[in-house]
Specification:
Largest sheet: 6 strands, parallel
Oligomer: single chain
Number of helices: 4
Strand order of the largest sheet: 5-2-1-6-7-8
CATH architecture: 3-Layer(aba) Sandwich
Strand content: 15-25%
CATH topology: Rossmann fold
Helix content: 10-25%
Number of domains: 1
Shape: globular
Number of strands: 8
Bound molecules: pyrazine-2-carboxylic acid, zinc ion
Order of helices and strands: EHEEEEHEHEHE
CATH class: Alpha Beta
Distance between the termini: 14 Å
Radius of gyration: 16 Å
């Protein structure tokens, strides 16, 4: 059985948002087109409290994109984004949310630790329940798309491999933040090296 994990298609990561991924909107129609191929759909939301430690605004004398140490974990500081119950945290209006076999995963709710992966936070303390859900639904193939290739998509794929899922990235259904211009390519290369398969929507 196949699941599609649709990562963080939220207003703040799209055009006009506080952490807009370059050309992020281009993947929405691609995602909409592939939805019918899957047995179950998992929509994730980055879902931060306003005092989240991944926000530069919650650190003294730090700028956006500075890197700090958060209790032993290296943390990029982001603009405020995806604050719970705000417009920026809502799914983009063009994303199709189909009703059946659809589940939602919220991550990044603990103010003290970021959570790029849809499975666990960056310290692997909090489990979102996604693994249990996939097991209950007899999922053995996990396909991942959405935002962003270099953060939440990447770390979700790393955990999926560690949890022994047959793991795919839909390359034309994901875009990168690209703090460095080649982070998209680097991320896919890194994922390929650990056993993630890179595919294109036309081959689904
Ligand atoms: C993400 C940066 C901060 C993502 C989330 O969805 O990739 N990136 N929070
Ligand atoms: Zn975030």
């Amino acid at each position: 059985m196949k699941a599609l994990i649709i990562v963080d298609i939220q207003n703040d990561f799209l055009k006009g948002g506080s952490l807009a991924v370059p050309d992020g909107n281009a993947i929405i129609p691609v995602i909409n087109k592939i939805l019918p191929v899957f047995d179950i759909l998992i929509y994730t939301k980055d879902w931060h409290p306003a005092n989240h430690k991944s926000f530069a605004s919650n650190h003294k004398e730090k700028n956006v994109y500075d890197v700090v140490d958060l209790k032993g974990i290296s943390q990029v500081l982001w603009p405020d984004h995806c604050i719970q119950n705000t417009f920026g945290a809502e799914f983009h209006k063009d994303l199709i949310i189909s009703g059946k076999n659809t589940y939602y995963i919220f991550k990044g709710t603990d103010p003290n630790v970021d959570s790029y992966s849809a499975f666990f936070d960056n310290k692997k303390i909090h489990d979102t329940g996604l693994n249990k859900l996939l097991k209950e639904k007899n999922i053995d193939e996990v396909y991942i798309c959405g935002l962003s290739t270099d953060y939440c998509v990447k770390y979700t794929a790393i955990d999926a491999i560690e949890l022994n899922y047959n793991t795919y990235i839909v390359a034309d259904a994901t875009k990168a933040v690209n703090i460095n211009p080649d982070d998209y390519e680097k991320s896919l290369e890194e994922l390929k090296n650990i056993g993630v398969k890179i595919i294109f929507s036309k081959n689904l």
